[in-house]
Write a structure and sequence with these properties.
The protein is an alpha/beta fold and 155 residues long. Helix content is 33%, strand content 26%. The radius of gyration is 21 Å and the shape is globular.
């Protein structure tokens, strides 16, 4: 039995779809990152959960973050309660996953991103205990020379 042109096209499209499956799976592979935090800090764990819900996979070090922040070259003025390393960039504090993804896509010449302090309403600081309160805050792009610019303002 000979195949019609339509049969060839349908089977070819099916084979192309099958061939693309590994690429689709690879595109959805979690982005690995390391994070240093205090073992008693709940908001850090909530931020890690936020990151993992948005396509990241954490390796967590329960030893505090001050030494990691210093080792990675981030000035104390940008400090928060946890420090992460994602794709070669430092991510300090409660930075939204969407900003980390944008950082990884745009690949600026920078040290990384920081949300200094612990603003209420930021990822990990947004649970029911805060009663829906949301502080305005800036996600800072920290350059390698230590200066920073606003990467995104969150209202």
């Amino acid at each position: 039995m000979a195949w019609s042109r339509r049969d060839w096209m349908l089977r070819g499209a099916g084979l192309a779809a099958l061939a693309a499956l590994p690429l689709a799976r690879a595109a959805k592979a979690p982005v690995a990152f390391e994070v240093w935090k205090d073992p008693r800090c709940g908001c850090c764990q909530d931020w890690i959960a936020h990151m993992e819900q948005n396509g990241f996979k954490a390796k967590v070090y329960q030893e505090g973050n001050e030494a990691a922040r210093a080792r990675l070259g981030l000035a104390p003025r940008y400090g928060s309660c946890h420090t992460a390393l994602v794709g070669g960039y430092v991510v300090e504090g409660h930075v939204p996953a969407s900003d980390v993804l944008r950082l990884l896509q745009t690949k600026p010449a920078a040290l990384g991103l920081a949300v200094p302090g612990m603003p209420v309403g930021s990822p990990g600081m947004d649970g029911p205990a805060y009663g829906g309160r949301r502080d305005k805050y800036d996600v800072l792009l920290v350059r390698k020379d230590g200066a920073s610019t606003v990467f995104r303002s969150v209202a």
